[in-house]
Specification:
22 strands, about 15% strand, about 45% helix, 7-stranded mixed β-sheet
């Protein structure tokens, strides 16, 4: 029996709205080899523990901290605020927040920027509190830890596998506690492992609490290791496996999986598929491993596949998608490829259109190379269900792109974004500032490009450059960088690290305050990574409609084409229901909200608001309301009342409208 522990992302600002693909693949390959495998859920499990099961413990943890501790964590004011509420209100608020985001699946909540930020800020506070107890106070008798340990040991595992995306105190403590209690062999693996240097591998074998380390892909290595251990054999010769024997670290060759088509379908059967904060199921998959380009000087992803690039066949990709669609009732997929080259996208899109899949939705990552500058290709992609593309533009200065060896052109990028928008594909552009040698003027060129192309972008992801010791720019840095022994560095020309950081902060501040606009007018820039996927998955899934199109549909009585999401909230004032429009600073969507006068509404209109959460069309809402108010109002009266109400709210930008399918009518 193998028990796998899913990565728990126990750090700030990291949250996923889909299960872990690596664990799903490991479960599948082990089960195929006859190794019974169970899963200890990571993210969905401990978030529920934080906000629901252990909220009383959290309250006590905060109150047991001394004033100096509170200052170090930065939560002095937070403690004062919850003291004013009391423990019951504290627990109720956390439970309601969890319920709204993870259980109710009310699409309206996806647009509630204040709710998302409230969750994110509380999540960060709780992570800091737990981390402080674990690291600074050396205290690990926490329910959050104890549950993981108990659940793992209750599986009676013969082997335990930890999958880690980063080194965290949370995973380390769980590993330590399990090792001390059970003494069973512990195997460590995950996407972090290829980035470990030989020196750091030796160090973690000395300091951590595992027995075997799988570096890179574990599809073949993990089951082979377990079979060797079952036979009391030393794992000598098993690729990617490191272990300690007689006080010495033993290593084997590092190899990638060559025949990807030979791998089984990923197994998501043990995940809480409906406890991720997305309005509908999203599953990850791969079309390839590695990058087809593989030349960018800033990138270190080549370490994950040891420099290789391997593809699944188009037939195999389709077999996997059809399997996931039928087995898990999922239509929404995100490709976890480093890139998706245009020739492959074309073949894939044709295969989707020839299949019997009904309205699948795909998110892909792509390098904006010249061959994407093709209306026919982009139209084909749209028809196949590719609804969103994350473009790695990195910079809009050609000289900087050339230094990066990106292989893209700014002039072509401009045309690609326009054509992609024309073909109703959602564009999310990823860029960073501070590449070694970049000047302030060149960084400003990227900003100007984003501003000038805001009509063709649904969102942007901005960050500062992070140097990896495995990137080409670090390995050949004599003329540009001065790298110190501790890994820090300084640049010899261009902006300094401090200047790049200040430039980035200034740009983000300008975007958030509305001084500059880098996205379409009807979409607001969202700085938090937590709701990006959820919000834009929704946009891509349903198709955003313009106000003009919505009013036109209302006029022509095309009520089944509009799935309204009415924003704002209903408050009681003087025993009357009052609809308060959404404040533009409290929503992550629709920049055009200008708070107007509150609107008094009656019981029927309150019902319209409640039902306008994106799940029902206007026609379905009218039918539901007529059923509720049958005997009080005629069908004709209800129909007119509803249509007039929607016409008024859409005219005042109090609502968001989506078309019936993901193909936008606008």
């Amino acid at each position: 029996m193998l028990t796998l522990i899913e990565p728990n992302h126990f750090n700030m600002n990291e949250f996923s709205d889909r299960p872990h693909l690596g664990c799903a693949m490991l479960i599948a390959v082990c089960q195929e080899r006859g190794i019974k495998t169970s899963l200890i859920k990571g993210q969905t499990r401990y978030v529920k523990d934080m906000f629901v099961n252990d909220s009383e413990e959290l309250w006590n943890l905060v109150h047991d901290l001394k004033e100096d501790d509170l200052k170090k964590i930065g939560i002095v004011e937070y403690k004062r605020s919850i003291q004013e509420k009391g423990i019951r209100q504290f627990q109720d608020e956390l439970k309601n927040l969890y319920q709204n985001i993870f259980i109710n699946k009310n699409i309206r909540h996806c647009f509630n920027f204040q709710m998302a930020e409230n969750f994110r800020s509380l999540y960060n506070v709780f992570v800091r509190i737990y981390s402080y107890y674990l690291i600074n106070l050396n205290f690990d008798n926490l329910n959050l830890i104890n549950r993981y340990v108990s659940e793992t040991l209750n599986k009676n595992p013969r082997y335990i596998g930890f999958s880690v995306d980063h080194r965290s105190s949370f995973s380390r403590i769980i590993c330590k506690r399990i090792k001390e209690t059970a003494g069973v062999p512990i195997i460590m693996g995950g996407s972090l492992t290829p980035f470990l240097s030989p020196k750091s591998i030796n160090e973690i074998f000395e300091k951590e609490f595992f027995d075997y380390l799988v570096v890179g892909a574990g599809d073949h290595a993990l089951p082979a290791l377990i079979e060797a251990l079952d036979n009391n054999e030393e794992p000598k010769g098993i690729a990617n496996v490191f272990y300690k024997k007689d006080g010495e670290i033993k290593s084997n060759d590092l190899k990638a999986v060559n025949d990807l088509d030979s791998l089984p379908y990923p197994d998501f059967s043990q995940f809480d598929l409906d406890l991720y904060p997305a309005p509908e199921r999203v599953l990850p998959l791969q079309a390839a491993r590695g990058c087809s380009w593989g030349k960018c000087t800033f990138c270190d992803y080549h370490r994950i596949t040891f420099g290789g690039y391997k593809e699944f066949s188009i037939k195999r990709i389709m077999d996997i998608i059809i399997h996931l669609n039928t087995t898990y009732n999922c239509k929404h997929f995100e490709f976890h490829n480093d890139d998706f080259p245009p020739e492959r996208v074309k073949k894939f899109s044709n295969a989707v259109l020839k299949s019997k899949l009904k309205k699948p939705i795909f998110h892909i990552y792509a390098r904006p190379e010249d061959k994407f500058n093709d209306n026919k290709l982009l139209s084909l992609m749209h028809r196949a269900g590719i609804a969103q593309i994350y473009w790695g533009i990195e910079s809009a200065c050609q000289r900087v792109l050339n230094m990066m060896a990106k292989g893209t052109r700014v002039s072509t990028l401009s045309q690609i974004l326009k054509k992609s928008t024309d073909n109703k594909i959602s564009n999310i552009c990823l860029a960073f500032f501070g590449f070694p040698g970049e000047t302030t003027e060149e960084a400003q060129q990227t900003v100007e490009f984003l501003k000038n192309h805001s009509d063709y972008m649904d969102n942007v992801g901005l960050q500062t450059f992070i140097l990896s010791s495995f990137s080409k720019v670090a390995m050949d840095s004599k003329n540009i960088l001065e790298i110190k022994d501790d890994g820090s560095y300084s640049v010899k020309r261009g902006k300094t690290l401090k200047e790049s950081g200040m430039f980035y902060e200034e740009i983000v501040r300008a975007v958030l305050t509305g001084s500059i606009n880098v996205t379409r007018e009807d979409v607001r820039f969202v700085p938090s990574g937590f709701y990006h996927g959820i919000l834009y998955a929704l946009v891509a899934r349903h198709g955003l409609m313009s106000k003009k199109t919505i009013l036109k549909c209302l006029k022509k009585a095309r009520l089944n084409n509009i799935f309204p999401i009415m924003l704002g909230e209903i408050k009681k004032k003087n025993n009357r229901n009052v609809l308060c429009p959404a404040n533009s600073m409290k929503t992550s969507f629709i920049n055009g909200f200008i708070p107007e006068k509150e609107k008094k509404i009656d019981k029927l209109e309150e019902k319209i608001f409640i039902l306008s959460d994106g799940k029902s069309s206007i026609e379905e809402i009218i039918q539901a309301i007529y059923k509720d108010f049958k005997g009080k109002h005629s069908k004709r009266f209800v129909h007119k009342k509803c249509v007039d109400f929607f016409r008024g709210t859409f005219s005042k930008n109090w609502s968001v409208g989506f078309s019936k399918s993901w193909r936008s009518l606008s």
